[in-house]
Amino acid sequence: MTSSLIEAYNKIDFNAHVPRYEAAASQAVLNGNALPVDLNIVTFKKNQFYQNFGSGGFGLIEISNVPRIQFIGDEFFYNGDSIKDVITKFGYRI
Description:
It contains two helices and six strands; from the N terminus they run αββββββα. By secondary structure, it is of the alpha/beta class.
């Protein structure tokens, strides 16, 4: 990351930000059936991370302040830097 990018990021007032999910309906409807919405989990589904290198000390996916995260069918191809550590930690072979 460049120093100007880091400076711009540090100037963001996250306390003034109102996340959109707070205004989301408590239930979604599919074919007339109510489906519960869990606002305490983030799901990544069928994403492909291809040829990502040089994370600059951060992970390829940097997530914070989320109680639960679920990855379903995500694929990582030819990534470098910290991705090997993440895959090794969770027991997957590259």
